[in-house]
Amino acid sequence: MVDQKVLFSSTLVLLAVLVLMGCSSSPQVTRMAVEEEVDLSGKWNDVDSRMVSQKMIGDCLNSPWIYSFKQGRSGQRPVVIVQSIRNRSHEHINTQTFIKDLETAMVNSGLVDIVASKEEREELREERKDQMSGYTSDATTKSFGEEIGADFGLQGWINTIKDQVQGEYVIYYQVNLELIDIQSNRKAWIGEQKIKKSVKRSKIKW
Questions:
Q1: Which helix (H) or strand (E) holds 61?
Q2: Looking only at Cα atoms, what is the longest distance across the chain?
Q3: Do the beta carbons of residue 173 and residue 48 sit within 8 Å?
Q4: What is the layout of strands, in order, in the sheet containing 168-181?
Q5: Where does residue 47 fall: left (phi above 0), alpha (psi -120 to 50 degrees), or beta otherwise?
Q6: Confidence class for position 174, pLDDT limits 50, 70, 90
Q7: With a threshold of 0.90, does the pTM exceed it?
Q8: Exposure pattern of 157-167 as b/e (b: 16+ CB <10 Å)?
Q9: Is residue 176 within 8 Å of residue 191, measured between CB atoms?
Q10: Mean pLDDT for the stretch of residues 145-150
Q11: In 10 A of CB 116, how many CB atoms?
């Protein structure tokens, strides 16, 4: 018959070893390409942001509004400001990264000009004030009243619908963007992009 004290002591030693192994183990880190598609949780991620922004801006810049604008303006490029992107989903989504993806896609197209956001303009105005304080040479000081006014504002929303049963759920994202003429409030372009993901959870619990 196995000695209960010996068995108990052996169990304690094994548990102590496992705890020490768990405490001493370090995380495994693997570097990967930024463009590599990795979807761990099924939630909105960098791949979704980049893919949606590129597709929607591509559609926007291939729509009739941009050609109508250039007619009679000697091919002048329209000036756009990316305004608010509202997160109306059930997830926490950093909309600032999406906004920057949108701005990047538009600037890289070479078809439109992008102006700074409200927050960015405030910082730039403070810099101009500082330049005019007497510490900057007259030849390089930037004056007020030379900012470029935007012709269009880009606004949008991110919405989700989640259908879930035990161990599995389907998540549906719908992104809507609207390009609005700032002078007339006319909606020059409306775009929509959808993403649908199926996520299955392992039934094994530790």
A1: helix 46-61
A2: 100
A3: yes
A4: 113-114, 79-87, 152-165, 168-181, 187-200
A5: alpha
A6: very high
A7: no
A8: bbebeeeeeee
A9: yes
A10: 92
A11: 16
